[in-house]
Amino acid sequence: MTEPLLRADGLVKHFPVLRGVVFRRAVAEVHAVDGVSFEIAPGETFGVVGESGCGKTTVARLVMRLVDLDDGTLTSDGEDITRVRGEALRKLRLKMQIIFQDPFASLNPRMTVGDIVGEPLHIHNMWKDGGPRRVRELLDLVGLAAEHAERYPHEFSGGQRQRIGIARALALHPKLVVCDEPVSALDVSMRAQILNLLKHLQEEFGLTYLFISHDLSVVRQVCDRVAVMYLGQVVEVAERDALFDRALHPYTQALISAIPIPDPELERKRRRIVLQGDVPSPQDPPRACRFHTRCFKAQEICEQIEPELEQRCDDHPAACHFAEPRAPVVESPA
Amino acid sequence: MRTLRFVAVVASLLLVAVACGKEGGPSASNNAVTGGGGQNAGPLVLGAEQFPECLNPIDSCANASWEDWAVVDHVLEKAMTITPQGTFEATPLLTEAPTLANGDLTQNPFSVKYKINPKAVWDDGTPVTSKDFEFTWQAHMKTKGSIFTTGYDKITSVDTTDPHTAIVHYSQIYADWPDNFGGNTDYVLKAAAFPKGPDISGQVQTNIPFSDGPYKLTSFNKNELVLTANDKWWGPKPNFSPVTVVPRTDSNTEVTSLLSGEVSAIYPQPSVTLAQRLKSNPKVKYRVGGGSSYEGVWLNLAKAPLNDIKVREALFWATDREAVVNTIIKPSDPDAAVLNCAGWVPNVGPWCDNTQFANFHYDPNQAKSILTADGYKLGSDGIFAKNGQRLSLTFSTTTGNKGREDTEALLKEKWKAAGIEMVVKNYNSPSPIFTDILPKGNFQVAEYAQVASPDPGVTSIYACDQIPSAANQYAGQNFSFWCNQQATNVMKQSDLQLDPAKRLPLIKQVGAFVRQDLVWLPLYQKPLITAWRTDKIGGPIGAYNETGLGGFYNLYAWTKP
Amino acid sequence: MTDDIKSAHHPEIGELEIAAAELPDDTLARMGLDAVGASQWRIVWRRLLRHRLAIASFGILVLLGVIAVFANVFAPHGYATQYLSQQLRSPGAGHWLGTDTLGRDELSRLIYGGRISLAVGFGVALSAGVIGTIVGSLAGFYGGRLDTLLMRVTDLFLSIPLLVILIVAATLLGGSVLDIVIVLSIFFWMPLARIVRGSFLSLREKEFVEAARSVGASNFRIIVRHMLPNAIGPIIVNVTLAVAEAILIESVLSFLGFGIQPPTPTWGNMLAESRDLATTAPWLVWFPGLCILLTVLCVNFLGDGLRDAFDPTQDLIKR
Amino acid sequence: MGQYIARRALVSIPVLLIASISVFAIVKATASPVAAIRSNPRVSQAAIEKYTHDLGLDKPPPEQYLTWLGNFIRGKWGTSIVTGRPVGPDIRDGLFNTMILGITSFLVSIVLGVGVGIFSAVRQYSFFDYLSTGSAFLGLSIPVFWFALILQIVFGLYLTNWFHLATPVLPTAGMFSPGATGIDLIDRIRHLILPVTVLSVQIVALYSRYTRAGMLDVLHSDYLRTARAKGLNERTVMMRHAMRNALTPLVSVAAIDVGALAGGLIVTETIFSWPGMGVLFISAMENGDYSVVLTWMMIVVAFVIVFNLIADILYAVLDPRIRYD
Q1: What is the mean pLDDT of chain A?
Q2: B249 touching C, CB under 8 A?
Q3: What is the least distance, in Å, from the CA of B277 to any CA of chain C?
């Protein structure tokens, strides 16, 4: 593996729960992200998948340095970016950008599309150097017309808005783009268009994606490697095919078993793993293995010793005492 | 609104005023001062522009004139009092006034013998005695926060051997002795009412539970106070009883209350159209006259450019006093005239030479030529300037006083015509104007009133050693910062002269110095007004209108119409 | 609500408008459905035009403003020019609205007085608007200790009756126009600060704010370019209504003797100092009072119109 | 909720302290109890010095403040510097008088405001709606003291003269007829009419606007439609559903206003010679009587804080969606 574009090492983020009569003090913490590590190689699409509330969006914000880390390090191109501030952080923005989940909320309703897309250029003193032309280019790039620049976000559909968000993210020629559930708010018909656009842009500009999603089929469609998160921790990391074909962690197995299969024949035949109970509160996660309360393989050890995320096969780490390569019940159609 | 208290205080300081009032309204009234006789005229309601907040007659409560006017004048008896003509006379408390002639005044050592009327009793029937005089003296000296100690501090002892004769011994001659135990602000207190001794602070704040006057105070709260006839009173019985005094602190509401009949008499501060308003109701009559407080334009002689006598002279020519009197005063008091003497008024003693400033009349050209001769040049903005310094003067007075504010506005235009700019900067009264602005000399021109007392001494406002300074804790009252050693010498000389005939030329000489140095410019005597409903009250209301005792003083003598 | 109760700092009706600011994006989207291609301002303007009273009021205010600005052109006499022989003339030829105690032309004084009154109204509204917006922005944007501190300060100012602190402060400063504007501004910002803070607290969580940060926008830029424009509706409505309130409060202060001191004419002090003349020279009482009433009424109508125009839920109610 | 109340109450202590310190500083800087006496030439310099010393006014200001604070905390409200009267009874009486005026105005205003507000919401865009909306704006825009002045003249003078009455149609000042003994209810009510009118005109205007807005929101809401669809009759729908929801905000606003009343109705009280808290404040302020001003301020601020809390609690009780933590 070449030098990673981004390395995350033991990221931790806890959000305090405040109580108190006069002085408000933290009485508890939400363990949003609790020791997450991964590496992203240049040019790849690295997926992070998990149920809602598992901390994957917090990972996206940590990577973007939109929230501060409680612990862990972030390295980009060999440079420690964990604590960069001010000008250095501004510089970092040139390298890393983000596409948000909700195209309705992520565009300022009071700004024109041109202003939104052009804002990064203004901020980084690149406007004078052909700013308007660049905005037209960017709009063109994401499939919008130049005259759309004069309009306001509310005049556009969800898909169009997400294109505007993509154009804004690309304005600064970033290397890494964090895609935080970029299609989950869109109609199914739009999804493919946007995913195709992302793929096309990746090819054209050699982009690296950190692709966050709860939708395994989307992940399967676009990602090269995938990390699976449960309750603020990564439980398994693997190449896409390795993951979908040979999931090691019971949680991953359960997730994959729940993917709907288009073929009704196969759909009827396959065995689904149904997890018991709800996701525990991140404010008070289960001890040791966090998954043991819902795990179909759980034994006594799972309540006592926390499993390490360790290599099981080639480059396929998983955090489970009973992780094993396991043949999928149903052959995947791919 | 805020200035009323101060004005009222000043008005209460009149020691003597001569009846020179005029009456408005449909018919003239009977001005007899004696009266009464208990015709049982029934209840009466009076409006008080300032309502007394507390009643202690010795501490700071006594600083409010309305405490005297509304309550104490009617409840407690003085030894000596003031006549409408401005002289002192004995009240029914004494059998006769102490004089040199009857031997009750002795000069060396100085003592005053008060012969107490044997009929004089408190409302519980106990007699008024010399012990009460002694107690009154002690109370003034020993009460925490007592404010009127002048004169009392010169008393060495009170001889109480005879209960009906109080002999007051002073350490030195005190010409103003009638103002102790009486006069404008003082009374005789009842010793027996204060078992805790002569420090009466914190007592009688909300009630005066004893009386040797025509009325008793039967109730006092923030809504009203009620006076009822004192049946033990040995003088002429009052006609109206009970008399209720209610607060009418908003001047407009006050007049409305009289016009609508809610109150039967008021003693308001005059405003420009007050007379006109009062005339609008045929059942309302009023009496107006100039009192002994006089209004003037005072200058700070310590500061440029008013340290230049030429500038002062020009300013006097630029000040249209005639217009001020015509516009501000005459609508209320048609007989008012420009005042021309420098520290006295025509109706208090022989001291006022009312010609001293008479030659100054409004003549902007005269002002201009004086300034030009003094090296000033008229600028393109129409204002004179000298050495690059524009002739711009700050004019200060008390805020919220419509008459003074109108005077400022009027004079501002007049000065402008003479090439002098006026910048108005008014201050609240009494603080900071009497605590900071005037004593510390933080002004250029100021308009305020002084009081002419029967004692013609003006040392306190003119002498060099009375200039406020850190040394005298800024307590000096010579706010003009005028120091003419020659004039000061004459003043001191006059203060030692007890013979009025010999004193007069000295006083006139002081006036001449003031005129010569152009210290300040007199404007007018402040008019005082008493208004009442003729359907409720007959005579002799208003008899004391122009005196410090106020329009309600002879309440006991008022009759039914 | 000018005197007395107002002195309690009524929670402005505007405070209810936090709700409007909480939903700026999708509600605007809703507005957009019938307003394709229009900027927010054009939408607001179009909706305001439907509010006939507000527009009429706006027209009157503009007219008053023009007369005030060009007072020297419109006033038939100087405001200080005295015709001492014509004291207290009733309205008629020569002096259309009569003269006052110094024979000054009442109409001219009303025109010049209007200049000061309007200047006080707008001056106070604008500066209090700026203070309130800054305090509210900082508290809402940064949150945490700064927010707590600023909100305690706001509570402090709010817990003392407005008129009382105004009197105390006016005593301290003085009675010039600038003094009064300063005093009123210092004690007029709190309701707006609360409104802005409320808006900002909700705006802070919006994704577009995060988006701006992720492209490197500074806090200042985020506040000014992204958050303020989304909170502008309530701010404008509040500032507008503050004009009315400031004019009224100045007149109340004048009545109590703590306002702008004569001879500088304002409607408030003209009214206050002629209150003794209500029966003898009623024109001196009626006209300044009517001027205040008309202006304040117009400002209130305009504020109401703006409120409706900025309030997206109004579309749901059939007009 | 209990915690919330406790926190709010505790937080208000520094608020009270800071308020009192600033007020003390300003009163000290602007007015002096000695000023009125100094401007009285009859009072000698020696007397002024004695007076200043007797009252402790020559002590350093921080000491004066702390002395006052110490006494206040121990429940000794002290005596006024200027009048020598105990502060407690004066404030109690002032508060009582103000409340008579204020509460009457509130009751009148709430009844009228809610009535008008509901009616004009139900008959939106009717003539009555326009009339009441217009009047509300007029009420909000009228300068109080001007209005009071006009009322006094009309009812005190003009009408009285036209009908040739010996006494005014309505009394123009005071709480009751001078010299009246006992409590004559009719007389009291007659004296309340003008000041209450002046105050209510403003409050009714505001409350009717609140009520109308609240009612309109509710009338256009889905759940009301559901209630109607359930077949409830119109009256029940209005009374049980609409009003309760529409009036919730008004209740807390009114609670806040009642708290604010303690500060006195300075203008109205001054004009109508009503001896309440406002008049008390103005005179103490003029006299530089910091002992009264400070105690006054503490009581008023405490009232405001307590009633704000009550407003919050009422709001939470009436609207279960609100949660405090």
Answers
A1: 84
A2: no
A3: 6
